[in-house]
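Researcher: Structure prediction, please.
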Amino acid sequence: MLRLYKDEWPGNKWPAIEIYPVDKAYFLAILTYLSQTYAFEWPQIVDSSDGYTTFFMINDSVALMLLDTWTFSIAFGLETVRDHIFADLSALPPDYFAVYRSKASER
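Model: Predicted structure follows.
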């Protein structure tokens, strides 16, 4: 089950959503959900040694999704967009993304 928290990135002060657990299986699931729900083009994903990063536009705001060894978060250029996406993700059933995690663990 995902746990979501509103936060702010310390360096650039972007409003953010912190996501727990920090689990690679959820990265593509959440990105797919957001892309399909908000109809944005699939962004390029940068694979690093310890995770993934991607930039995309959502509701007229730039967004950066980051997953590494310690952090899983989505930061937004606009607080109102962060709040809207937070409410949307929080309204999903608690096990909405569980099927993605199960499929990833089968690999």
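Model: Helices lie at 24-38, 79-91, 98-106.
Researcher: Thanks, that helps.
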